[in-house]
Design a protein that fits this description.
Helix content: 25-40%
Low-confidence stretches: none
Order of helices and strands: HHHEEEHHHEHEHEHEHEEEHHEEHEEH
Radius of gyration: 22 Å
Structural class: alpha/beta
Strand order of the largest sheet: 4-10-9-8-7-5-6
Distance between the termini: 47 Å
Mean pLDDT: 96
Shape: globular
Strand content: 15-25%
Number of strands: 14
Bound molecules: pyridoxal-5'-phosphate
């Protein structure tokens, strides 16, 4: 079963037209007459996909790509994994929705989630998108603490509803910048980015303690003393696969304990194996108070979860789990099958092994290329930061766009749009295809360097 995807990958990249091809362009143009607000990734490369199996994507012109995006961190076990597709189709033919009544497949899923998550994270609710899970996490934090203020961090992303966006970076030009922005009681503080530290020690290394003491000062001076939780991504996905230094979360957890604050760990993007652990937070041996799961949780089927510690489970009775689609039988089947695949196919092990290969290759690339300022990542949550100059670290967004388009033209379906080249390949990928993707990226970087006169 483990190698089910290899037969589909044997001939990639297979490019039979210029890309985006004529049929892609035609369908894209017809669609955008009515469908508005596409992401920059799509605008920069308006291809129209028709099929996806394993680590491959095929467009309507018959061009076949290597997938380095997993949708958008979603189809982590490969497109149309046979076990997951089968599990969904069984319930699609038997029982599609039963509100929040118990179903046999939901019973199995709750037990499985409780088994794989660390500590006593075992009181849960299911939703159908990451934003709703984060909203539920915020409601849960209020219910648990009877407090209403929240602290999040610069460049975090947690979704697009009012509370979720209030914990997130707001972009100029985004709808939230046209009116009152953050909801009241939501605050942002800087978090440590090892490549661009705000506070350093005398030896130049990042000063995590300074961040923590700033938070402490912030809690005392800028809140009304009603802080419920810190809401954080364990590693910042949207911002460019930015991981904090290893001592950050242990120190933050201590601060939370000192002030009786909860730690809401938004693992929608980084969780369920993407970094080689069930939760990214496992890397630092931290058990958060509240966790949100999404994206990889159902491998493409819209299913997400909000989970709290057993001790706080009763508080969830105050926030109803009822939703139209949350935890429907198809969704539970997809999530259950996805967790089983991670176990049966030793996915965590593969992510750790191939993840090391990624980092090793990317280190070499960094040394060989004047515009690669930094490489970052754990497991299959990876980033390459492009800069105009390694000394000044000025972000090189123009290069980012060009590298993205050039690599796509070589047959790499991926997700960067800014100066950090984000990568989130399917977790089933082996070194051969990891190397193939990096080759396409490296060639594209070299071409862009030449175009900008670096060599
Ligand atoms: C960390 C994080 N939280 C929440 C969300 C929102 O998830 P969704 O788009 O499923 O609503 C995202 C989406 O990218 C995310 O990356």
């Amino acid at each position: 079963m483990k190698d089910w995807w290899k037969e589909y990958a044997a001939d990639i990249p297979k490019l039979i037209t210029e890309t985006p091809g004529p049929r892609s362009k035609e369908l894209h143009n017809r669609t955008t007459r009515y469908f508005k607000g596409l992401s920059s990734q799509v605008k920069l490369f308006p291809v129209c996909f028709e099929k996806g199996y394993g680590i491959t994507l095929t467009d309507v012109d018959g061009n076949k790509y290597l997938d380095f995006s997993s949708g958008i961190y979603v189809t982590s076990l490969g497109h149309c994994h046979p076990k997951i597709s089968e599990a969904v189709s069984i319930w699609a033919k038997k029982l599609m929705n039963a509100h929040d009544f118990t179903t046999p497949v939901k019973e199995k899923l709750v037990e499985k989630v409780a088994q794989v998550l660390p500590g006593k994270l075992n009181a849960m609710q299911f939703y159908s998108d990451g934003t709703s899970a984060v909203e539920a996490g915020i409601r849960a934090a209020r219910a648990i603490t009877n407090r209403h203020e929240f602290i999040s961090c610069y460049r975090d992303f947690h979704g697009k509803s009012l509370a979720a966006v209030s914990c997130a970076q707001m972009l100029r030009g985004d709808v939230h910048s046209y009116g009152p922005t953050r909801a009241s009681g939501f605050y942002m503080v800087p978090r440590p980015d090892p490549y661009r530290p705000l506070w350093t020690k005398t030896d130049g290394t990042i000063d995590t303690d300074r961040y923590i003491s700033f938070y402490e000062e912030f809690i005392m001076e800028s809140t009304v003393g009603n802080v419920s939780a810190f809401v954080l991504e364990p590693a910042q996905g949207w911002a460019g696969s930015i991981f904090p230094p290893d001592d950050f979360f242990p120190k933050l957890k201590k601060l939370c304990e000192k002030y009786h604050l909860l730690l809401l760990d938004d693992e929608v993007l980084a969780g369920m194996g993407r970094t080689g652990e069930w939760l990214c937070m496992n890397h630092w041996n931290i058990i958060p108070d509240i966790v949100t799961l999404g994206k990889s949780f159902g491998n493409g089927f819209p299913v997400t979860a909000m989970v709290v510690d057993e001790e706080n489970g009763e508080a969830l009775e105050k926030i109803s789990a009822s939703s139209s689609y949350g935890g429907n039988p198809m969704a539970c089947a997809a999530a259950l099958a996805s967790i089983e695949v991670i176990e049966e196919e030793d996915i965590l092990d593969n992510v750790r092994t191939v993840g090391k290969y990624f980092i090793k290759r990317m280190e070499i690339m960094k040394n060989d290329h004047p515009i690669i300022g930094d490489i970052k990542g754990k497991g299959f949550l990876l980033g390459i930061e492009l800069v105009k100059d390694k000394q000044t670290k000025e972000p090189f967004s123009e290069a980012g766009k060009l590298v993205y388009q050039k690599a796509f033209r070589k047959g790499l379906a991926w997700i960067p749009a800014g100066h950090i080249l984000r990568m989130s390949p399917p977790l089933i990928m082996d070194e051969k295809y990891a190397g193939m993707g990096l080759d396409m990226i490296e060639e594209s970087i070299a071409e862009v360097e030449t175009a900008f006169g670096y060599h």
